[in-house]
Amino acid sequence: MQFDVLILGAGIVGSACALECARAGMKVGIVEPNVPANGASAAGMGHIVVMDDSPAQLALSRYGRELWQQMRQALPATVEYEQCGTLWVAADEEEMQEVHAKQRTYASVGVETEILDAQALEHAEPQLRKGLAGGLRVPGDGVIYPPAAARFFLDEAIRLGATLLRGVLPVAAAQGRVKLQDGSGLSAGAIVIATGVNTSLVPWITVQPRKGHLVITDRYPGFVRHQLVELGYLKSAHKLTADSVAFNVQPRQTGQLLIGSSRQYSDAVPDVDAAILRRMLDRASEYLPRISELSAIRVWTGFRAATPDKLPLIGPTPDRSVFLAMGFEGLGITNAPGAARLVGDYLLGREPAIDRTPFLPGRALKQAEAMRA
Amino acid sequence: MPESRLITVQVNGKAVSVPAGSMVSAAMLKAGDLCRVSVTGEPRSALCGMGICFECRAVINGVAHSRSCQVACREGMTVETQR
Amino acid sequence: MSMRWDVLIVGAGPAGMAAAVAASRGRLRVAVLDDNAAAGGQIWRRGLGETAEPAKQKMLHAFKECGAVLLAGRRVVQAPEPGVLEAWCDETNVLERYHYDRLILATGARERFLPFPGWTLPGVMGAGGLQALVRGGYDVRGKRVVVAGTGPLLMAVAAHLKHDGAKVVAICEQASMARMLPFAAQLAKKPSKILQAVALGANLRGVSYKTGCWPVAAIGNGRLQHVELTDGRRRWTEQCDLLACGFHLVPNLELPLLFGCRVENDAVAVNAMQQTSVAGVYCAGEPTGIAGVDAALLQGEIAGLAAAGNTGGAEKLVARSKAERAFGEAMTSAFRLRDEVLRLCDANTIVCRCEDVSYGSLKALADEKNNWTDAKLLTRCGMGPCQGRVCGPAVEALFGWKNASVRPPVFPVPIAAFITEPQSEFDNQQALQEMQ
After folding, report:
1. What angle separates helix C54-65 from helix C293-307, to the nearest 10 degrees?
2. In the predicted model, is pLDDT for residue C314 greater than 80?
3. Which of C22, C196, C200, C212 has the fewest Cβ atoms surrounding its Cβ within 10 A?
4. Which chain A residues are within 8 Å of B64, Cβ to Cβ?
5. A104: which residues sit within 8 A by CB, 6+ positions away?
6. What average pLDDT does chain A have?
7. What's B6-81's CATH class?
8. What is the pLDDT of residues B61-82, one digit of tens each?
């Protein structure tokens, strides 16, 4: 079969890319060996958040959030888009200083925020423990149910003529050809690899699986109102080696609470790690003391696709037919629409809305070469 | 083992007397009250009677999502429909 | 001082109790965990107005005297490492850790529920479900009850309900008489079972028992008012307060799956000694294939003896156990679901009661060759607190979707269960107090 573009991987990033290309009138094929959106897209929280850990990430996540907001009306109810806002919680005066710095950073790119003092924080989230210093509210952030969003993108792409090749495992992708496990092949003008944590098609890049745990509760509507994240979260997210936990609790539209977060490099098996789960929930109960009484109905793990510099790989590779859209760590949901737009820009020769050079996959090649030297 | 002694619990504010040893689900059924309202607003009551279906969830002594078929009535207990 | 049990048993129903009695003969330290407040399991559920069946009284007595420790009110949550099991105790709000040498899973069965229009109305209950609720103090005197579905449980439940003062309007068995005849022949070979059947028949004199008859809809405004029934040719309605409806039993496989025991044909695979594919883990009773209380008692005894090292004693029971297994197979065949009961739903009929997932939304996914993982992801079917225990067997029957994986927690538990260190210093003193 001949396609204009073949997307490998029907997670939220691959599905968003497929929709972007199908909208542009391209003949699109999507290759998915398993269940669509059953990897990080199913395991993650679905937090739509502007993240300020680097200028490039700030630009991409702000762009992603904007695109989510723009398509909000078109999303089906199953996506459960809820603009609940993020509340970054400052435990003490030192963290309160960070709140001010964070506000300045967000203001520099036009992201609206609001500083809450201790009293305002208590009013906003009565379940938080007393004595916290305050927080930063980012009202434009939100929450979605990612598997439904990914499937919506996929279904829309199919409606526009894209072909889903399900249960098909690609084993090689080069020179406009995708070789499949059964020995057959597919060809396309361009190939977009969006296989998340699986780098078997591009062994020259470094993407490490970074394990996370999540717990979901029964329904307790109104227990918390914003996605609550401790200010120390970025410290946790940025650690390169050690296992870490951070307070990160999300109110689902259903009234359920999704409780995170943990980060582990060392552990490659998907089993629940009781020790880190304990640390993670202990952290959550430090901030929300009554959370320990709530009924947990499921615990699961997933793997984030982490690059060494914490930025995703989006764009062309030395093989000019092969493009990447992977390595999103914990921001694949937020960044999927922006990444899809950038991929479309490359394929169609459009001018990108943001600086795309920080995400060029070439840097991964250089990092790999540097590691070999 | 039938016991004649009665225990009184509050079901959604109404006093309901049941034989000692009764489960909370029995008191809710006697009161004619729902155990819970489903996620789309349907009325629900006990189904399996053995603690696995979670249809009999109720707020028992302030604890949400308690399985009323697995909790024995105690004098003065408060029980509310899980909404 | 950490307590290590020689034999730990999960489930204090007939199989678990028989296992405990048999294992305790070897002077071993034996404990039995159960989610319910008392021993007896579902078939011998204890409570208000319980009956004095001789077999039940005998076993309850033997169990009480055998020296095994009953740890009631505990739901098993996870098995963090081999030889260790953790259970949550609601009474104390503590996650308890148990160490064991050998484990016997006697987790029993649950009713299979099939969705049909109106089945979520209050007043529609399981057949065993209603009986359990009556044991739990629900007064059914004067209530009009239709008992429907399939399986030998229907008659037993109807007899108990009548005894408890309910007006049993009808018993509707979906299996045809022709299908049930070979099973009746099996029944005739067993004097004890004939006695039971005769006793049930006597209790049910005057109650109509219709074979080849099933419910098509439960109707009522906010609660059940009448049920629509059919025999495949005509439809009629019966006014009733309660519909006790279950479609035979399905084994509780969650714990065997958690331990990695091999499951074949919807049952835990065991050898003649009730040993599963996992070393040191035995399984007895309904999880190895629905076969009723006599099979459960024998299998429990075999497992208990084998786990205690008395394989000689266990081997003497194997022939009888095989015969009971054959009885179970005849029963399964007799009460196989007819196609019509799998076609009762309309598009709006709820299939997953926790998440209110409709038949229509699942059917649409099934038609596009999606599997249960897709359905779970996209509709949340099976993702609520019952963890698919109710809708799982239903979607398997309706769409052929199978659930083969189980993740801890096996049961919902408070977050606290994961925060505090599990309490493993479960000393003898406390354990002995639990014995009452």
Report:
1. 20
2. yes
3. C200
4. 218, 220, 294-295
5. none
6. 94
7. alpha beta
8. 999 999 999 999 999 999 999 9
